[in-house]
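Shipment paperwork, digital attachment
Item: protein structure file
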Amino acid sequence: MTIVRVLLTTTIESVGHIGEVVDVANGYARNYLFPRGLATKPTQHNIARYGKPKAAHETHLQEREEKALRLRDTLADRTLVFTRKAHDDDRLYGSVRVEDIVSQIEEELGEHIEPSRVQLEQPIEMLGPHAVTINLYKDIALELRIRIDNETGLEGANKEE
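Attachment content:
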């Protein structure tokens, strides 16, 4: 297998970012990257040509990381509270799903999180405290505290007052 150096003209997840010079298999470069315009030969002219997009991309990545760190710090001190109707044995009539968690974060903080970043193996179906892992960006993750309260218990408390 022959290795060849190429300059990426766009970011390819498993290969590298725009403006980077990377080593790839000759066949991959010749049959996939070059024909699709995803890479070019790493001449001085091409390296200079993609210098500005590379700097813009690096700035964008830095901003995403800073935003993820701020969001992690904000969510670390917070507990999301959901109210649901429940059976006598604390099982919910409905469940709390990833979409519910994402929409509540967006409603409370105005921050959108991709549902695929929330690790919830199955919907939450019981009252009480729970923890959900959210992968915000690369290696930035947090354990989000969630509490499910009984909706009927709240109604009863309001009637007594």
